[in-house]
Amino acid sequence: KWYAPNTKLAWYNNGKGYLELWYPSDGWYYTANYFLK
């Protein structure tokens, strides 16, 4: 699923870590960061 540019999404993934998706204003790609809790 695509989201509008500058949309920031974040949620917990299976209670094991933190996944953050960032759709920058200059493109439709995303960067993802996964942090263990």
Mean pLDDT: 56
Contiguous uncertain segments of 5+ residues: none
Radius of gyration: 11 Å
Helix content: under 10%
Question: What does this molecule look like?
Answer:
The chain has 37 residues and is mostly beta strands. The chain has one domain. Helix content is 0%, strand content 54%. Strands 1-2-3 form a 3-stranded antiparallel sheet, with no helix packed on it. The radius of gyration is 11 Å and the shape is elongated.
Short description:
By secondary structure, the chain is mostly beta strands. 0% of the residues lie in helices and 54% in strands.
Q: Descriptors for this entry?
A:
37 residues; 54% strand; single chain; mainly beta; 0% helix; 3 strands; three-stranded antiparallel β-sheet
